[in-house]
Amino acid sequence: xxxxxxxxxxxxxxxxxxxxxxxxxxxxxxxxxxxxxxxxxxxxxxxxxxxxxxxxxxxxxxxxxxxxxxxxxxxxxxxxxxxxxxxxxxxxxxxxxxxxxxxxxxxxxxxxxxxxxxxxxxxxxxxxxxxxxxxxxxxxxxxxxxxxxxxxxxxxxxxxxxxxxxxxxxxxxxxxxxxxxxxxxxxxxxxxxxxxxxxxxxx
Length: 203
Hints:
Elements: H1 7-14, H2 19-23, H3 31-39, E1 42-48, E2 54-60, E3 67-70, E4 73-77, H4 86-93, E5 96-102, E6 109-119, H5 122-127, E7 138-149, H6 152-157, H7 174-182, H8 191-200
Antiparallel strand pairs: 1-2, 1-5, 3-4, 4-7, 5-6, 6-7
Domain Pyridoxamine 5'-phosphate oxidase N-terminal: 29-150
Protein name: Pyridoxamine 5'-phosphate oxidase N-terminal domain-containing protein
InterPro entries: Pyridox_Oxase_FMN-dep, Pyridox_Oxase_N, Split_barrel_FMN-bd
């Protein structure tokens, strides 16, 4: 018993995947994938940094905010954030990305893997304008793999079950937690300032 270092050892524990688990993988977005993305207001974007560490970041907007340009290309507008630029700088060095699309109330998810590039074409940015505000850049993902993922994680976690919701009071506010973490070394906006930032800098 101990650290597992090769796939053979893993397969000895887990066995082989089913024919459905392997065979469902597509190399493009079919009608079902497109419909799923059109209904999704939220996705997680996974990249890898130059230090080899993985990075997963949330992206969200109105349903269908990720544009399907064709069966092998999706476009994600980059809305105002914290300007760390972790995701898009990661893509500059390693363009491989993974997307996980969620729909509120759905236990199924859609996984899309591909090769990304960062674009600032005016016509592409215009396509994703909100109230005349354009995203600074748009990430194009050239699809290599797409497949629907089973519901087990969502069933186990009861993510959409109202009875499983956690009261926000169980943790301090975001501002307070960050203040505790930095221990006075930097100035952190208070809760009212953070709320104002959210209201004024969504787009």
